[in-house]
Amino acid sequence: MDVSVEIHCGTCGSANYSLPSDASDDGLLLCNDCSTRLGSVAELKAEMMDQALSRSAEALRREIDSSV
């Protein structure tokens, strides 16, 4: 099962950001388009995990419903 996750800037809607060079969990992410602070690497990881789990559960429910 493939699951896509996207993190978008709350200010401009862009998904264009870069990881800090040290990429430690407390490193800050900035939007490459408008320079808004998007949070820490740890917060990004947590959000991506939440999205992946949620979308996986939705996909699994659809798959089960279609096979019944």
Description:
There is one protein chain. This protein has 68 residues and is of the alpha+beta class. The chain has one domain (17-67). Helix content is 40%, strand content 15%. It has one helix at 41-67; strands spanning 17-18, 28-31, 37-40. It has a 3-stranded antiparallel sheet. It starts with 16 loop residues before the first strand and ends with a helix.
Brief digest:
The chain has 68 residues and is α+β, with helices and mostly antiparallel strands. Helices cover 40% and strands 15% of the residues.
Features:
68 residues, 15% strand, alpha+beta, 3-stranded antiparallel sheet, 1 helix
Q: What topology does this entry show?
A:
Layout lengths: L16 E2 L9 E4 L5 E4 H27 L1
Antiparallel strand pairs: 1-2, 2-3
Whole-angstrom Rg: 15 Å
Mean pLDDT score: 86
Overall 3D geometry? elongated
Structural class: alpha+beta
Sketch the major β-sheet: 3 strands, antiparallel
**Domain count:** 1
Output the helix-strand order.
EEEH
Termini gap:
19 Å
**Tally of individual helices:** 1
Could you estimate the helical fraction of the residues in percent?
25-40%
Catalogue the unreliable spans. none
Portion of residues in beta strands equals: 5-15%
